[in-house]
Design brief:
The complex is a heterodimer of chains A (about 325) and B (about 350). Chain A contains 14 helices and 4 strands. Chain A is mainly alpha-helical and about 325 residues long. Helices cover about 80% and strands about 0% of the residues of chain B. Classes of the chains: A mainly alpha (about 325), B mainly alpha (about 350).
């Protein structure tokens, strides 16, 4: 069924049809945008896993977090050593400074390497943002790849900073500025390729992907009792009002939304399908029953190869 | 309607196995492979394959977003575990020192020569020019090394080469300072800049070679050449060695990016990048030793002959470590996992 016939069947004016078409196109555009970050990884078993590439901002966020962690740890260790040795009667600040410089050297060079070689293939910053490093060819993440991607950071972060600090120094300002712009190419490299690779990823053959940890929640349809289903006997016409997209939105509403949003949604569905509200009918009960029956209908249609993508379909 | 949803029944039948796989993965990720018993190891492939097939079926029959997202996440976690590397950090470090690092250095012979020529060739050139006419010193912008320039007195120059009794915490301080010194930074830059077709690496090496040559010339001009080289080389063999190898690593990448040959540029960069990165990691290790020698050794040892002896020993040790051919010495099990 095309959107036009669906609309005229519902008795909408041509203007409303146009509006609906525009909304639908917008949603498609949004879905395409999402698809741009999805990559299929075909496992040796022949199943395709959908991986999601991390965006530039997510990666920058993870980096900033790691940066904060590294230097907070260094600072805390410095203060601890300095205060303890000072207390013992030595020149604590000098000793603390020296020991911490060694510690900082190790942290600076091996923080990322140590954690990315670990079992979760992610630094604490990446774990918080929900990312991990993986080999682009789907194979094992080799230690050498981890070295490569992290030592390249020197030109992605170190080099631009280097030029930035010399802008007011003794080198000509213009030359420093050119240097900074040149070095900026490396820094913003992830913005200019579709896999959001930084130079280090490119050289190491890695990429950074999402590591989602969705919990398995109770199936909403399973909590609806038989008696409830009989109480809410929707007609096929009433169940054909919505498609898969709306079903998913309804699932999100039921799982996460507060009470007032739920009753608002329930009222809009009642209006749309001409359902007269029974006395003592709860919003949650109505929504769950509608969800269960809508899903059954849509899944049945799907089994016969008939995907009703959304309410205009 | 008396029956349950098909997709719900599907989920109900398999849910226990999904949960079992999830618990198994959680233990493996948090504690390591050692946390898995033999039974777990036997169960893992079955649970993994079942989760993968559940995902394919769920995509086709279930409209429960949560189930599909959960399986998607569970399967990728399991995939990365099943097909990932399972060696520990310690094993990887062992492999690095016993096999990967010397192999990588040996395979980059021509790049090492080029890097050596860039650093010491320009160094020699700058030295010769300065010895002919000290005004060249200023042309090389070598004044960044401080007040050890042609205007300093011979007495002052001599005094910079030797230290009187240094208190221990100052020794520690100077060691720490060396870790973040100019030289350890240019080593990693020389590696990373190789990505820009190798050219900046060459320039960086030549620039620093020129400063080095001019520096030695200032001392040689006053008849302090022998002493200055001893002062420089006690740690310089290791430190300059690290810079040469880092430059060589940069050239390996630069060459792969510029002349990819039959491979695509991406594939070529990746192949060379991993080899070169091993050398860069090794350079960090060398720089650490160099800082030890510079911070402690040079301050405490004020005899030229002993300085030369240490320089010679480090040279022999490094050359032997990198270039004497030998079996990797790893047992076959570790070799296979690397």
């Amino acid at each position: 069924m095309t959107s036009e016939t669906a609309a005229s069947a519902n008795g909408l004016t041509s203007d409303q049809t146009r509006q609906a078409a525009i909304r639908r196109r917008q949603r498609r555009a949004l879905e395409n945008e999402k698809a741009k970050y999805r990559r299929d990884l075909v496992t040796p078993e022949g199943a395709a896993l959908q991986l999601k590439i991390a965006t530039f901002m997510e990666r920058a966020g993870a980096f900033v977090l790691d940066f904060i962690f590294q230097w907070t740890i260094v600072l805390v260790v410095f203060l601890a050593i300095a205060l303890i040795t000072e207390e013992l009667g030595y020149n604590g600040w000098a000793i603390g400074g020296a020991i911490v410089a060694v510690f900082a050297f190790l942290i600076r060079n091996f923080w990322f390497i140590y954690f990315e070689m670990g079992r979760k293939a992610a630094t604490p910053g990446k774990r918080i943002v929900g990312l991990r490093v993986a080999a682009r060819d789907g194979g094992a993440l080799k230690a050498n790849a981890v070295f490569a991607r992290n030592f390249m950071r020197e030109i992605e972060v170190g080099l631009p900073l280097q030029f930035l600090f010399t802008i007011n120094g003794d080198v000509s300002g213009l030359i420093s500025l050119f240097g900074f712009l040149w070095a900026g190419i490396f820094m913003f490299f992830p913005l200019f390729n579709k896999d959001k690779l930084r130079v280090g990823d490119l050289v190491a053959g890695t990429w950074v992907i999402h590591a989602p940890k969705d919990q398995l929640k109770a199936d909403i349809a399973s909590v609806v009792s038989q008696a409830r289903l009989e109480e809410f006997a929707f007609t096929p016409q009433q169940l054909d009002a919505y498609g898969i997209h709306e079903l998913h939105v309804l699932e999100d509403v039921l799982r996460t939304s507060p009470k007032d949003v739920r009753s608002d949604v329930a009222q809009r569905i009642r209006d749309k399908i001409d359902w007269t509200r029974q006395p003592n009918e709860g919003d949650l009960a109505f929504l769950e029953a509608y969800y269960a029956q809508l899903r059954r209908r849509l899944e049945q249609r799907m089994l016969f190869g008939d995907m009703k993508v959304d309410k205009y379909d | 309607m008396t029956d349950l949803l098909k997709s719900y029944r599907f989920r109900e039948e398999r849910e226990a196995d999904w949960k079992a796989l999830e618990a198994l993965l959680k233990r493996a990720e948090n504690v390591g492979v050692r946390a898995l018993s033999d039974d777990d190891m036997m169960a893992l492939p079955r649970l993994y394959r079942q989760a993968i097939s559940s995902l394919s079926v769920a995509r086709a029959i279930s409209l429960d977003q949560n189930v599909v997202a959960y399986l998607e996440g569970l399967c990728s976690r399991a995939y990365f575990f099943v097909y990932g590397t399972r060696s520990t950090f310690l094993e990887r470090i062992t492999i690095f020192f016993r096999r990967d690092w010397p192999n990588a250095v040996r395979s980059a012979g021509w790049s090492t020569l080029l890097s050596f020529a860039c650093l010491f060739g320009t160094g020699f050139l700058a030295f010769t020019l300065c010895m002919m006419d000290m005004d060249w010193f200023w042309a090389f912008n070598a004044e960044i090394i401080g007040d050890r320039n042609p205007n300093a007195t011979t007495e002052y120059l001599r005094s910079t080469l030797y230290e009187d009794d240094v208190p221990p915490e100052e020794l520690l301080g100077s060691f720490a300072a060396q870790l973040f010194s100019h030289n350890s930074q240019i080593a990693l830059f020389a590696f990373a800049l190789g990505f820009a077709f190798g050219l900046p690496t060459a320039l960086l090496l030549m620039y620093n070679g020129a400063i080095l040559g001019a520096f030695v010339a200032v001392f040689a001009d006053r008849g302090l050449g022998y002493e200055a080289v001893g002062w420089l080389m006690i740690h310089g063999v290791t430190e300059l060695g690290a810079i040469v190898l880092a430059g060589a690593a940069g050239f390996v990448i630069g060459r792969a990016v510029t002349f990819p040959g039959k491979l695509s540029r991406m594939a070529s960069a990746k192949e060379a990048g991993q080899r070169a990165a091993v050398m860069a990691a090794g350079c960090v290790v060398m720089l650490f030793f160099a800082a030890l020698l510079e911070g402690f050794g040079r301050q405490m040892i004020n005899t030229d002959e002993i300085r030369y002896a240490i320089a010679g020993t480090t040279l022999v040790v490094w050359l032997a470590y990198f270039y004497i051919p030998r079996r990797s010495g790893l047992d076959s099990e570790l070799e296979a996992r690397a």
